[in-house]
Protein 1
Amino acid sequence: MDVLQGLDSGEKYRWEVKGLPYAVELPLVRLPADGRTLKIASLNLVGQIRLNRDLGRLLAAKVREVVGTMDNVVMLTVVEKGLQLAQVVAEELGLEAVAVAYNRIKPHMEAQRRPVIQIGASSITSGGKFLALYERDMNLLARGRRFILMDDVVSSGGTIFSLADILEEVARQKDMPAPVIAGVFCAATEGEQSPLLPAPVYGLGKLPEPVVEPE
């Protein structure tokens, strides 16, 4: 049985990626957003071992093509749906660690004793939220000179803007030079990206634009 197909009921979108030797059936799901209902193709990479591995290898090749050497490069990603993908990409690139922005302040961060950065964010799939970065990953970013921003899907760009804000705040607190973002990388883009994003967006494939369903 092909575990990438047929496990979701209902309407599907056939997603094809150049270099991926198979297509993936993505369920079309409906999400509440600002009083409306959006129908989107849901690319959920959590638990998808083979798909993360295959997409990660393709995406790592694209990072090498765009960024070149990984000297002084640090990757910044966000939990949770893109984290498995980011780990595959990092391993393919020979990076030993990745900076991770969490979706809330967690107990292990010891926010009452250690530095934590928290930034507001928004996205089509999760709406308004906060991203938090704690001491360990702040210090990892402080070692970098060039940076890669990584997510599973880039649509409106809200999460990417927030990752860039986090990076700038780390640079301010650590007295670093202005951070150079070498690129934004993702498995898929969705709709039109903002021209104000901090770096070009490189995706492996494209998802259909979200559809506003009638009331």
Note: The first helix runs from residue 49 to 67.
Protein 2
Amino acid sequence: MSLKGHTLTKTLLYEKAVFPAPEDFDLLLIMGGTMSVYQEKEFPWLRSEKEFVRKVIDEGKPVLGSCFGAQMIAEVLGGKVTRNRFKEIGWHRVKALAGEKLKMKNEGVMNSWLPSGLFPEFTAFMWHGDTFEIPAGAVRIFESEACPNQGFIYGENVLGLQFHPEADRRWIGNLIEDSGHELVEGEYIQSKEEILEYERFLGDSRSIAFSLMDWFEKKSVKIE
């Protein structure tokens, strides 16, 4: 698939696919999944994925992780991934940290690293029961009411997001069909009807996703 002159490829780990060499790509995207990063016995390919992600980060390549992808990055960098107090499913408000919460010495890092269009608060799509610990050396940048750790920056090239900026109508529909059994009564769990009723947020979600990718292209991804 070609987007804005870039080629997008995918690696399906459960098919025993071969990982690409880091020098063969400009940006690594690690997307969501219904498994947990600590389920290595059930999904043995997680071990090789973690080794690959560690290698890519060590080589200084840009990396963006969403939901499970952010949890994968966090664990690879030494942070623990555990069950969150609440399951968070549906459209929820996310706040960018600032001032004392962010620690003033890091505020300039965040404001220069991320697209300004994401601040200071927005609605994002969630579907998770786990949460990650902020790794040593990373900066926590986002929070929600149900999940304090919604995002972090590591160095100048790694971004982990607990929410799904890539969500679109088709993907949400497939997720509901596959995992709709999780839509039970809960403080931060919306019903199918509520999730689909909030389609008005898809435009903002798309803008966030494009803003992030444009930023990676401009700041980190070097295209010859």
Note: Strands lie at 2-3, 6-7, 28-30, 63-66, 81-96, 121-132, 138-143, 151-154, 158-161.
Protein 3
Amino acid sequence: MPSRIEAEHDLSPTELGALEDQLHSENRRLTGRGDDKGLAFVVRDDAGRAIGIAAGHSWAGTSELKLMWVDEAYRGRGHARQLLDAFVAEAAGRGVRWIWVSTHDFQAPRLYEKAGFERVAELADWPEGHSNIILRKTIAADALP
């Protein structure tokens, strides 16, 4: 059966999700760890519109915060820290030992550092002229359930 590679930059969320599910299934099989689970908190305005989110997952004693955002009109009110604290607490409640996050120098590295995350890497020129900063928070063993 012939194989070919084609550019497909507009995969549907359904197809992309199905491919991601295949990868996660393989990861579970190879590690023997099937405890992967989404982890997300949303803050909404009075009309129910999402104005902030902290979202990622937990798996195999580790959590990754993939998406952290607060609408510009609602910044400076403590929403980001509340979302981050809720994410950390839920991850700890799941027995996670480490939480990882990647942020750019123009985003929120100080927010994470104030919350106890430590820089473990800084990748220059990602994007060009800026840095991508990788941070990790270690959850104390006595804080785990």
Note: The chain is about 30% helix and 35% strand.
Protein 4
Amino acid sequence: MSVVLITGANRGLGLEFVRQYATKGWQVLATCRSPQSASALNELATAHATVQVLPLDVTKEADINALATSLNGQAIDHLILNAGVLGSDCATLGEMNQAKWLEVLTINTVAPALLIQALQDNVAASEHKTIVGISTRVASLGDNSSGNMYSYRASKAALNQILVSAAQNLRNQQVKTLAIHPGWVQTDMGGKDATFPAEQSVAGIIKVTENLTLEESGSFRVFDGSSIEW
């Protein structure tokens, strides 16, 4: 049975990833900060015996290392680095400060890097060997025509670099990485006026992930498979 690990699995895209992978018959390791209060996620775990809910606060390095220790020897086919924040209170000139910046960077940038470091052997031991970072089109330098979203843009651009570096460092182990833009999605983060339902976005991401080749490792894509300039 193929195995996926998903961070930020208690809502939005993360919850939809759990639902779709479970429906596909995968074993799902669904992580979130407070499993005891993740009612929708726990309902999925009750409905699908292949879903396991695990505690993980991505802002705590000790949690990341503890998760890796608990999963020692467990192959992970798809590692979905989904947990993230929009940084809406650290988005424009005049409202930024160091504490707000560090909060966004810790969640969007540092945590994915530490998770790749901690779980690289698990991914390498699997059949599919794929790491996916949920990025965003606004991380593209070439596509930035409006400014603002300072911390979100920068943290996700840095995530992209991490994924490209990992593609190079893990290539000999046949591990592939992908930075992907999920679209403007109808979630708590995207809002009700967003363009795409979570079901469509996640289905597209899974399809792109499953078709990713080693030659395409380290690429920056949209959920429909099209490429984005860096």
Note: The chain has a mean pLDDT of 96.
